């Protein structure tokens, strides 16, 4: 058997592991394919070695929930063009530093002399702008509904303190539209979604309710602790075994049906839904965010006359198929050879959460 | 008029440089080998085998909770010598100073060097000072070399590692990396955590006395335990298995790593050894370590097996298992 | 998608505050969770509090990671 299945699950996980195996057996099927939408789930599954606890036939594919993975090359190229402007200091989360654009990356630009800074929070970038009025500070805004409200709040702070030398490269994505796109794509056969925990803290679990209603597919919103992920998977398998399809919340500690209305209000005050391009999925209606007209002065692209070029995929890179759950990382011809963490082709290898990076770093079977 | 700062002239070999050396550096580090200030120091070495190492230090900021670039330079060099079983004896000290560096900063760093050297009973036998234009360096950099005597019969190396051996840590991991990161711009957080930077020669001696056939030891600095234990596995062709639940990580390090999205196994320590010793000597080694002030939190964290050869495997807290790969770049805070 | 950790809100001054987690303290922005009160436990993401969680969740979360105390008690560390 490819992977040694370890029975010695720690106490915290033993009940969930047992339930997973019990429900899987009750299904009486050789294989079940589920998707974990969120990149942070992908990382936790690999980092805690959870696959070695799964029933052998449980197939778990990684979905489009990793902001770096789904950011089109064109956005990276725009960030690089902004970073090259002499008076600009380009601030970014660590996640974006090594993502390859079509010809360069932010860490390569930093080495070549561009002012590129890694920040823990968009507020840190605003501090830099306040402290250095002669610089133009641009924050590379990527992420989903957990992170977009933090950017919106930072822009409102900039507005209140009228900090004029602060702007943002906006490339936020939202759920659940890409999940709908996946379900409408015949090449992808999914039987259940493990839904993102922290996005749902903001959106609430309500946004997934169309999935069981229209597609008859079970959804469980899970936390990120190993036993929470295992419990979430056990709940999905239990729904399948009992022929149910509904939205359940495993992550009750932090997620409610309505989410965090204040965070959404702040997000919707500054941003409005727009169509967005997803790496590997193409353009999806209403799946991104852009600055509303009242705040367009914070749009770095407009401020510096930088357009976001369209992004031809890297030749031979099948990140798109991996993101759509149509291909496992090791099935990609470039995986582990041309495409490694040191020489990443697509963002699925560059992002520490990307399905390929996580698999390359942690996923090789241990016998 | 002295502006209280390093001037380009301090690097010019003239009176300013002469006064810098005789009035600031030598008084703090003075010893018979250094005093003559010849072009080379003449050292009395017995006929045993010598260990020689070199290292450079560019830590930023220069002062961090629990230490400074000077203390780091001495300890880092000593710990590399003791890692091969050598008794550290002499250090060289090359200072590269940026024009405009406050002399007060240089004094504090020299104090750090002097304190660490005396703590470890080594002497700075010779040195050099250069000054570069403002902006060409970041405050100051230090390069060192270190010489030590290797007693007969000591051959510490990862090549000695065999299946059945035990893996120990002399204490908590990741303290230094997080202490320094807490001061980095754009990340700032406050913590009582201080760097663990410390000279480890006496820890090595205590362990060798209790467990003479220790296979090897190494300080997990850049790249952390993942890098060092991975090297052990690769260099010995064995499989190193670590139990995540047994690795001692301070709460502040665990907290900062969770907040920043960093794996503590990749975070640097500057006052710890990872040790591999035969199974039947591990209890003696642990007891010796725990009675040493720098080994109070020593722990057994894993064992050596035959398979998967050349790999580092982590048995996770939850009962799963996975391979631990070499880190591949900077340690960066992530949101996702 | 997004890393967030349970922390304790130790002080509050309008829309800003300070949080503490396992011996680490940092400033926090409360604009996305204006009703959070000092002494409560919140989820912390990229410098912002985004939801209130209960104390047991915070204790369990850090207890799982804080094996150092357990190892010390067991005379192991």
Description:
- The complex is a heterotrimer of chains A (367), B (336) and C (77).
- By secondary structure, chain A is an alpha/beta fold.
- Chain A is 37% helix and 18% strand.
- In chain A, strands 2-1-7-8-9 form a five-stranded parallel β-sheet. In chain A, strands 4-3-5-6 form a four-stranded parallel β-sheet, with helices on both faces. A two-stranded antiparallel ribbon of chain A has the order 10-11.
- In chain A, helix 7 (148-160) packs across helix 12.
- The longest helix of chain A has 16 residues, at 226-241.
- Residues 1-7 of chain A have low confidence and may be disordered.
- Chain B has 336 residues and is an alpha+beta fold.
- In chain B, 28% of the residues lie in helices and 23% in strands.
- In chain B, the strands form three sheets. A seven-stranded mixed β-sheet of chain B has the order 9-11-7-12-10-13-14. A four-stranded mixed β-sheet of chain B has the order 1-6-4-5. Chain B has a two-stranded antiparallel ribbon with strand order 2-3.
- In chain B, helix 5 (201-210) crosses helix 8 (282-290).
- The longest helix of chain B has 17 residues, at 103-119.
- Chain B is globular, with a radius of gyration of 21 Å.
- In chain C, a hairpin with a 2-residue loop joins strand 1 (5-13) and strand 2.
- The model of chain C has no long low-confidence stretch (mean pLDDT 91).
- Chain C has one domain: SH3 type barrels, CATH 2.30.30.140.
- Chain C has helices at 55-65, 67-73; strands at residues 5-13, 16-21, 24-29, 41-45, 48-53.
- The A-B interface holds A 6, 8-10, 12-14, 17, 39-40, 46-53, 66-68, 91, 93-95, 97-98, 107, 117-120, 124-125, 128, 143, 147, 226-227, 230, 341-342, 351-353, 360-364, 366-367 and B 185-187, 245, 259-261, 263, 307-308, 311, 313-325, 328-330, 332-336.
- Strand 8 (190-191) of chain B pairs antiparallel with strand 3 of chain C.
């Amino acid at each position: 058997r490819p992977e040694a299945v370890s029975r010695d699950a720690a106490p915290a996980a033993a009940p969930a592991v047992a339930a997973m195996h019990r429900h899987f057996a009750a299904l009486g099927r050789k294989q079940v394919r589920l998707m974990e939408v969120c990149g942070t789930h992908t990382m936790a599954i690999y980092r805690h070695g959870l696959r070695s606890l799964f029933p052998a036939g449980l197939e778990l594919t990684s979905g489009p929930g990793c902001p770096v993975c789904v950011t089109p090359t064109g956005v990276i190229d725009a960030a690089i063009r902004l970073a090259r402007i002499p008076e600009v200091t380009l601030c970014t989360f660590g996640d974006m530093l090594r993502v390859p654009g079509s010809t360069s990356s932010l860490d390569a630009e930093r080495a070549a002399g561009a002012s590129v800074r890694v920040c823990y929070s968009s507020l840190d970038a605003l501090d830099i702008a306040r402290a250095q009025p002669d610089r133009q500070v641009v924050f590379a805004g990527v992420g989903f509904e957990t992170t977009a409200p933090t950017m919106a709040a930072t822009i409102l702070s900039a507005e209140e303190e009228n900090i004029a030398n602060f702007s943002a490269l906006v490339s936020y994505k939202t759920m659940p539209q890409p999940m709908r796109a996946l379900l409408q794509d015949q090449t992808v056969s999914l039987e259940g979604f493990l839904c993102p925990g922290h996005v749902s803290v903001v959106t609430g679990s309500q946004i997934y309710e169309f999935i069981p209603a229209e597609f008859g597919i079970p959804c469980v919103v899970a936390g990120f602790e190993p036993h929470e992920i295992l419990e979430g998977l056990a709940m999905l398998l239990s729904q399948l075994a009992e022929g149910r399809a509904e939205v359940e919340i495993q992550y009750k500690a932090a997620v409610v049906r309505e989410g965090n209305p204040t965070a959404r209000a702040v997000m919707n005050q500054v941003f409005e839904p727009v169509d967005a391009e997803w790496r590997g999925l193409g353009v999806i209606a209403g799946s991104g965010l852009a600055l509303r007209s009242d705040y367009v002065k914070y749009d770095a692209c407009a401020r510096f006359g930088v357009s976001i070029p369209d992004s031809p995929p890297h030749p031979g890179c099948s990140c798109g198929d991996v993101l759509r759950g149509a291909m496992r990382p090791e099935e990609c011809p470039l995986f582990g050879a041309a495409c490694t963490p040191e020489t990443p082709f697509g963002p699925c290898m560059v992002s520490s959460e990307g399905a390929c990076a996580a698999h390359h770093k942690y996923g090789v079977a241990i016998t | 008029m002295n502006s209280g700062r390093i001037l380009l002239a301090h690097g010019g070999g003239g009176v300013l440089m002469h006064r810098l050396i005789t009035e600031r550096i030598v008084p703090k580090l003075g010893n018979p080998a250094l005093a003559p200030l010849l072009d080379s120091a003449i050292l009395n070495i017995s006929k045993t085998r010598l260990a020689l190492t070199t290292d450079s230090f560019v830590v930023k900021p220069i002062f961090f909770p629990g230490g400074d670039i000077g203390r780091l330079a001495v300890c880092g060099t000593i710990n590399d010598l003791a890692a091969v079983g050598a008794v550290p004896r002499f250090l060289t000290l090359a200072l590269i100073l940026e024009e405009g560096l406050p002399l007060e900063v240089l004094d504090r760093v020299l104090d750090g060097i002097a304190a660490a050297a005396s703590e470890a009973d080594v002497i700075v036998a010779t040195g050099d000072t250069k000054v570069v234009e403002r902006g060409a360096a970041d405050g100051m950099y230090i390069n060192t070399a270190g010489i030590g005597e290797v007693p007969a019969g000591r051959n510490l190396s990862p090549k000695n590692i065999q299946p059945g051996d035990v893996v120990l840590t002399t204490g908590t991991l990741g303290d230094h990396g997080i202490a320094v990161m807490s001061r980095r711009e754009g990340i700032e957080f406050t913590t009582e955590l201080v760097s663990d930077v410390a000279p480890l020669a006496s820890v090595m001696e205590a362990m060798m006395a209790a467990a003479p056939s220790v296979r090897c030891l190494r300080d997990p600095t850049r790249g952390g335990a993942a890098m060092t234990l991975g090297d052990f596995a690769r260099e010995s062709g064995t499989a190193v298995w670590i139990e995540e639940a047994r690795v001692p990580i301070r709460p502040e390090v665990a907290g900062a790593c969770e907040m920043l999205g960093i794996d503590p196994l990749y975070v640097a320590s500057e006052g710890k050894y990872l040790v591999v010793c035969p199974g039947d000597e591990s209890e003696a080694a642990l007891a010796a370590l725990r009675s040493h002030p720098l080994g109070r939190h020593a722990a057994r964290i894993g064992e050596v097996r035959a398979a998967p050869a050349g790999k580092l495997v982590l048995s996770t807290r939850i009962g799963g298992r996975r391979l631990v790969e070499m880190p591949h770049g900077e340690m960066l805070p992530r949101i996702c | 998608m997004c890393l967030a950790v349970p922390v304790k809100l130790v002080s509050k001054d309008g829309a800003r505050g300070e949080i503490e987690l396992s011996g680490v303290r940092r400033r926090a922005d409360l604009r996305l969770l204006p009703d959070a009160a000092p002494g409560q436990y919140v989820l912390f993401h990229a410098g912002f509090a985004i939801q209130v969680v209960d104390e047991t969740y915070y204790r369990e979360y850090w207890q799982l990671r804080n094996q150092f105390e357990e190892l010390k008690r067991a005379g192991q560390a």
